[in-house]
Amino acid sequence: MKSLGKRILTLLAAGFTVLILLCLVVLDSPFLPPCFFHEFTGLHCPGCGATRAVRCLMNLDMAGAFSFNPLLVVALPFFGVVMFAQGMGWFFDRPGWR
Fold first, then answer.
1. What is the pTM of this model?
2. pLDDT range class, residue 13, cuts 50, 70, 90
3. Cα 44 from Cα 41, distance rounded (Å)
């Protein structure tokens, strides 16, 4: 059984990392790498659509996000529920949550 302190420290580190990444996405940071597929072909790849959709979601623009990548917008709530359940199983060390 893992100690509670290590679990809380891991959750805080993960939360801080997610916060930093969200700030980079919302603020249109120049630190995001360019898309090589778009650079060479001029076409937008699905990854570009997902990145633009996430940026729109961060700015609460649901219509814009849906126009860039509808699958991501529809699947994101389900992915969130699964990740929450997995995290609860890991945090409380209960295999029933997994």
1. 0.57
2. confident
3. 8
